[in-house]
Specification:
FeS_cluster_insertion_CS; about 10% helix; 1 helix
Length: about 110
């Protein structure tokens, strides 16, 4: 059985801050081929599709398409703020390695 990704309260709170749900938008997390390690994350605001897996919290939504879901099984989607900037991050237990930027990984 596939465990869906987990979304932290901090990530939902950031979506609420930017008003994503108020505009009918959700955070879309997808996995695509490419990047320096073989796969890369595509994270953007988007309109949910009817076949997406929808994760909800604090009135906000994070969506994952069915093709990306197996790559994100058990992953944690978070929002971090550091001196170098703020961004949504993914802690993926399925990744055997990742690049320094955190958007590319291999399995």
């Amino acid at each position: 059985m596939q465990l869906p990704p987990k979304v932290t309260d901090r990530a939902f709170a950031r979506l609420a801050e930017i008003g994503a749900g108020d505009q009918g938008q959700a955070l879309r997390v997808a996995v695509e081929g490419g990047g320096c390690s073989g796969f890369q994350y595509d994270i953007k605001l988007d309109t949910p599709a009817k076949d997406d897996v929808i994760l909800e919290g604090q009135g906000q939504k994070v969506v994952v398409d069915s093709i990306s879901l197996p790559f994100l099984t058990g992953a944690t989607i978070d929002f971090t703020e550091e001196l170098i900037g703020a961004r949504f991050t993914i802690d993926n237990p399925n990744a055997s390695s990742s690049c320094g930027c955190g958007t590319s990984f291999s399995m």
